[in-house]
């Protein structure tokens, strides 16, 4: 038995708990992700591993140098790369100063994890050491690991000449070393590889391990990495506040390596929701990520639209929540089962009340940002089907509101973005009864119907008047039924419950209503004041639930934590409604949080500071697509960008006061043009690269 394998008794006694990720080093490239400790070791009996297509193909990959694990010094990760600086304290000169450094560089290439181990010596005499690499795999599905079942029977690689091979039901992984090992020992549960390394004073030597994984069988979503399909290499942000530059650079690297190709058409890419738990297509997440990145091109939006359109609902199926015209919530490579909660989802699941409206709005906005008209027209049948769901099956009774209710007993109880079971609460903390009509879902539908009306009219298509009428009727219902008055003041309720009563919990949901065309100026000002008040805004973002609300928990999933994308959406909405100072305030809070997380935003976190820093939500995905894409939202907020290429207009309305000081953004994509926008500290704007056919309108204090 290995010295780090748990005993059977210890395994039996340990409760099933979702693994925590906040201390792990994570890199990702499309369908593959690697999780390890801060020394780079993939330790058994943990959530560590190399995962491909949601299957753990390596569950052990550890190194020992002359019998000892090298000591941790530093680590970092971005996109598909991770680096570890270690020290072999048992080698080299005696004394407190380390003289033998170990540099471990990991890269996820398409289909492979490549790891270079570099031994550098500053010792006074030559150093010779035996490096032992221990390898094993267990084929564990990601859902099982997420449920806390981290221990699975391991399989040792078999020998194939100089290579080691791990075979599982869906994958084969081949591991090779360069130079060749001195010895390879294979037992029932693991392989031990011995490598001899010698290094002269002042020099370095290295060994490379390559683990290449290929598929043996197909599944519903065998999506390959899509990083090469979208280029953001020309994007460069320079600001007085240097944190913004670091943030945009790291976020785009992460987002690019979360991209996947549609197996039905490899030219179309979309953003997987996040690693490690959601490294697949999620309608809502993928749409929001594409929306936030529209100022940098429409390729991601176009791919996301087509990927989801191919899987748009066609029939009524209560188990999968499918309905004609409905956009799916998520696709998994196999059915998803959480034995702890009883959640059991088919590979294609439609349990979302908002993705359909968001899909429509993404199509409209992509058209405004320059998506080719023939591509837009090709999606009009899907647009009409989506509008059909929004105005029929999406509204299950005669009050005309979008609602959800899981009738299968094994699906999501809540089907908005706050999809945990305890997220929809009254002011006193009670959980609301289903079926639920979320305020933001109604607002999304108003925005979608209004946008679709404009698009259809511009393209000479029928249906615009009906969509406009439906939007106005829904807008009036929101105004009549969702406003509440409590000790916190007057604001929009989170939802209507199953009895038709307004759920008066104070939450960030109302922030998603901003900019959708629902609110009057006075109502918009009221919402802005609530969002930037003491209960919802802290120094690191917008809380999902107000601090005075019953059930408030600053580290609860949707009950007081801060979600990066949620705060970014609020900032966007504030600026759209003309609340530029408030939008700038919220944008600055997000940048403060990014610095604390080394410019790699997690899915969510606690805003209550510990020594001036936010606290991690330990199980949070990192990177997460809509978190990374929030960097694009910050650029939009700071510049006040709005494009309407069909009308020949690019609008710039810089936030005042400037949230990041003087700002220069290169690599904006306005149609086919590469555009640079600069704003000085006084709000004066300079724009270059705009084609003559486009009018630039500078609003606010810019000139």
Automatic annotation (TrEMBL):
Q: Where is the Mannosylglycerate hydrolase MGH1-like glycoside hydrolase domain?
A: 324-595
Domain named Putative glycogen debranching enzyme N-terminal is located at 29-209
Gene Ontology BP annotations:
carbohydrate metabolic process
Record-given protein name: Glycogen debranching N-terminal domain-containing protein
């Amino acid at each position: 038995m290995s010295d780090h394998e748990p005993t059977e008794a210890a395994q039996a006694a340990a409760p099933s708990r979702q693994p925590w990720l906040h201390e792990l080093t994570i890199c990702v490239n499309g369908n593959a992700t690697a999780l390890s400790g801060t020394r780079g070791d993939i330790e058994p009996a943990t959530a560590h591993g190399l995962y491909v297509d949601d299957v753990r193909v390596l569950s052990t990959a550890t190194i020992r140098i002359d019998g000892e694990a090298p000591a941790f010094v530093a680590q970092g990760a971005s996109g598909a790369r991770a680096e570890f600086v270690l020290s072999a304290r048992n080698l080299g000169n005696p004394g407190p100063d380390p003289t033998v450094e170990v540099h471990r560089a990991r890269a996820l290439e398409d289909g492979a994890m490549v790891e270079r181990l570099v031994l550098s010596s500053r010792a006074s005499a030559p150093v010779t050491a035996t490096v032992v690499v221990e390898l094993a795999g267990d084929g564990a599905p990601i859902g099982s690991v997420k449920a806390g079942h981290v221990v699975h029977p391991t399989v040792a690689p078999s020998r194939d000449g100089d290579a080691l091979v791990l075979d599982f039901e869906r994958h084969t992984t081949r591991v090779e070393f360069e130079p060749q090992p001195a010895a390879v020992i294979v037992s029932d549960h693991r392989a031990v590889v011995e490598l001899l390394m010698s290094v002269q004073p002042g020099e370095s030597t290295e060994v490379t391990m390559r683990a290449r994984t290929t598929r043996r069988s197909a599944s519903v979503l065998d999506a390959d990495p899509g990083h090469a399909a979208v280029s953001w290499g020309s994007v460069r942000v320079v600001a007085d506040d240097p944190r913004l530059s670091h943030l945009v650079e790291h976020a785009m690297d992460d987002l690019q390596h979360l991209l996947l190709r549609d197996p039905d058409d490899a030219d179309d890419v979309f953003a997987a929701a996040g690693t490690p738990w959601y490294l697949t297509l999620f309608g809502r997440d993928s749409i929001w990520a594409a929306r936030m990145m529209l100022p940098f091109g429409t390729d991601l939006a176009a791919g996301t639209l087509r990927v989801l359109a191919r899987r748009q609902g066609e029939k009524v199926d209560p188990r999968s929540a499918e309905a004609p015209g409905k956009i799916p919530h998520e696709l998994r490579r196999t059915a998803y089962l959480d034995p702890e909660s009883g959640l059991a989802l088919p590979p294609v699941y439609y349990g979302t009340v908002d993705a359909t409206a968001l899909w429509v709005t993404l199509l409209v906005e992509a058209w405004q940002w320059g998506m080719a008209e023939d591509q837009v027209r090709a999606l009009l049948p899907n647009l009409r089907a989506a509008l059909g769901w929004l105005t029929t099956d999406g509204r299950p009774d005669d009050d005309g509101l979008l609602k959800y209710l899981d009738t299968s007993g094994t699906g999501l109880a809540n089907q908005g973005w706050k999809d945990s079971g305890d997220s929809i609460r009254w002011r006193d903390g009670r959980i609301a009864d289903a079926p639920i009509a979320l305020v933001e879902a109604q607002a999304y539908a108003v925005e979608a119907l209004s946008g679709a009306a404009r698009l259809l009219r511009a393209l000479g298509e029928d249906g615009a008047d009906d969509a406009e009428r439906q939007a106005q009727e829904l807008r009036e219902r929101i105004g009549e039924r969702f406003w509440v008055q409590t000790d916190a003041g007057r604001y929009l309720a989170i939802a209507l419950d199953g009895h038709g009563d307004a759920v008066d919990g104070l939450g960030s949901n109302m922030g998603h209503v901003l900019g959708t065309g629902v609110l009057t100026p006075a109502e918009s000002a009221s919402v802005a004041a609530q969002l930037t008040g003491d209960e919802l805004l802290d120094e690191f973002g917008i809380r999902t639930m107000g601090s005075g609300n019953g059930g408030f928990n600053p580290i609860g999933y949707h009950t007081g934590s801060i979600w990066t994308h949620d705060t970014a959406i609020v900032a966007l909405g504030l600026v759209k409604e003309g609340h530029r100072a408030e939008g700038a305030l919220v944008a600055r809070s997000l940048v403060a949080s990014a610095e604390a997380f080394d410019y790699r935003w997690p899915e969510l976190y606690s805003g209550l500071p510990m020594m001036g820093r936010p606290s991690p939500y330990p199980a949070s995905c990192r990177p997460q697509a809509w978190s990374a894409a929030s960097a694009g939202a910050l650029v939009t907020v700071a510049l006040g960008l709005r494009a309407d290429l069909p009308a020949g207009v690019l609008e710039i309305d810089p936030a005042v006061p400037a949230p990041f000081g003087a700002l220069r953004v290169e690599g904006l994509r306005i149609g086919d043009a590469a555009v640079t926008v600069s704003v000085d500290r006084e709000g004066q704007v300079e724009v270059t690269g705009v084609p003559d056919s486009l009018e630039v309108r500078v609003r606010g204090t810019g000139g």
